[in-house]
Write a structure and sequence with these properties.
The protein is 54% helix and 3% strand. By secondary structure, the chain is mostly helical. The protein has a 4-stranded mixed β-sheet. The chain has a 3-stranded antiparallel β-sheet with strand order 5-6-7. It has a two-stranded antiparallel sheet with strand order 4-9. It is globular and about 100 Å long.
Amino acid sequence: MPTEILEFTRSALSQLNIELDSENTISGTQLRELLDVMERLAGGDDVQSQFNYLVERWREEGRIGLREIYRTSVIETPPAPINPDNEIFYRSIIKFDNMFYQKIHEFDPKFHMSAIIYSLIRNSALLDPRQIKHIYEHGFIEGLVRHNDVYWYRLSNDTIWIPDDYTLSLIFYFRDNLILKKSKSWFSCLNNFLKTYDNNFSTVNQKQFLSAMVGFHKTQMPAAMVNVQTDRSKNRFFTEKILLRSLSEKIDNQRFINESDFKSNISRKQARSKISAEISNIIKNLNDQEDLLVEILKSPNSLSYAAISVIRCVYYYAKNSTRFGKKIKASGLLRIYNDLIGRFQIQFSNNNPEEFSDEDLISELLDMINQVPVESQPNLRESIEKYLWFLHRCQNRKLLQLNFKSNLSASVKRPTMLLPHEYRRLYDELSKNMVSEISLERRNFVKNMLLLLIIGYRLGLRRGEIENLLVSDFHLTRFMVVIVQPHQNHQLKTAYSPRQVAISGRFSDDELSFLKNYIRTRINNADISNKKLLASDYDRSESTYCDNLFEVLTRMLQGVTNDSKMRFHSLRHSFASRNFYMMMFMNNLNRNINNDYLSIDSEEFDRFDQYLRRVRPDDVGTRQFNVLHQLASEMGHSSPETTLKTYIHTLDIISNEYRDRNLPRFTAKTFSLLLDRNVEAIYKHCRSRNISYDDGLIAVSSVRRIMHNRMKNLVENISVDHWLDVSEYSPEKLYSKDDNYFNDLVKCFKSLKNNEITSKQFYYLYPIFKIIPKSLKRDKNILNIIINQWSRNDKRKMKLMIENFLNLPNMAREEFAYRWSLISHQAPNDVFVKKPDFYNHRQNSAWNFIMKLGINADAE
């Protein structure tokens, strides 16, 4: 152990004002800060040696104890809700809370904003300081928006916040005194208010106060529900668009789908070399194949220096802990490898990144981060920081800092979900199309899409798991389940992926009947190899067939939600969000729902009770039922934290139910003062809705209608009158990479032309064509042009032209019909591909106008 204090150590001590030979005690926090500063100044070996010397020296001098030493070696676990650091403030909050509601009418006008801030934190459980700041700075009234009688704030991370009814009542009551003082922070404003009633608040800081409020809320709702509210940027919640879709059961009729959205792009994973893919598989099974990775490092063969450096980094973390003393699992090692391997090879080419100077290396890494989409930057930065720590420890470099600020909050593409009413619409439409399809091949294709929709939405399986399911994995007797397990040539994503997922209690009678019939048909078909669930019955690649299935279904999901972020994987988010919502309400809240934003019918709750009775233990015994752990196990997650933070979007809805139940009840006189209505009007409102007030107290939610009538003129209303009702949605058959869709359409056009089918039958098969202007429906020339396209390239262009035409606004389609009437009688079959020789300027202008509408496929 060294006895000499090096210069970088003295510099670190000086920066933190820590005296080497003083008798002052050193806290665990100071030790952690000292280590952070030292790591930025010198290499890993020198830092570890100097830091160990200082700790041992100060321990012998009595300046630090074992507790501080321990806290420098591990990540501190989250503290108990009430601990010595916040207990005194927690007791002050309890004391203040008891008088807050009684003296609400006596508060000095200068504290009216402070009272609303306290109400947001106390009653609305808003515990994220960044979001409190956002609402405070944007104005309590100015920042509010509403749709009918539902109010919310737009937050800075593309989510929303629905305040409680009591806070809204306070905002109305204090509306004339809500003037923001930009010189004061939200906490300064609140603290000046609190300390006038309790001197203990004179010494509280923002972190201590919010910690005490977290402890307060954990006494009223599940701790996990409270923890996710402390940092909303790391969790999933409703966005404004999802909320509007839920409240209105409509979709925005401004379509977004175009051909460029669905071009087949090769992913980084697909573009990797064969050896890179092999190394990825080795890392995935590192416990059994570590020797292979060591052999690759000894004899790298054709690997670039950049690739070798990434592999060395992965191997380092396979043997050592992270900067914070945590061991990385195989899935984490694989993530580092996948994040860095391709990008390092492109960025550094044949150069060795370990030989770059500090300045040049940081410059290259920052350039690499800036080249990826904004939503991918945080994950890449995390992997790069692990790489820098690897260099710090293995090259004895000083710990380099990225100093990179992402614009993620402004541009993040948050995962979305399919709402129950949207699922029902898509299910009904696919069921109808399955019956109406003329071609047997197309009918089976639609049947498989319907199966994918049901399994994805009801069971939450991953795409890869569904593609490799066998019919034997379904057990459809008694309590029905599907078994997710590895099969030949297919390994599951993680060690936690093998599982049983319950079918009983989740499927409706129609869905269950469809599934049983489907399984029965597959079993009876002797031509299906291995009895795969989605094996193609036709002469085409199985992977191509599955790709078409998932792509077409994805487009239908995007169409019914009008959300370009919708993917098949979004159904897994829907499964987690809906099941957590139902389990929490049935297990913890006794199915008593005040705000049912998901519109789940009572029959589905009754069916779900069958599932809950099976997985929930009886009162006899010691096993405890945890909703989150049960859901995580059925989703194949190693940690419930993954389920909670990544997949569940309904946290706000559930926490709103808890907070509404915990709100105090008030007298009619109190509501009379808050809402500026006489007492008799309050009583009359309650009597008209059969609301009991025998004890003289009324719940806040009972007067929501009155509160809305008072607030609605102060807040902007978001109208969705121009949106399309989801019941009117019809998935267009044209949106497909599969040419069979267009071929079937042409066959129907020919049948219509030859009077083999009626117009009514045609529109039943292709309802989207009802929007075409009547003059075009009667025009036989345009029908002939569509039918007479014979080459694959011309068919592709015609298919895209029809899609582009259907996406035009109504007035543009009418204008197209008029302009077309001017040139229809002399238009050749290639009229949309090249300009014909027209006789006059008017026809030339008509053709030019049509092309400007974006009908020409080549114009794309």
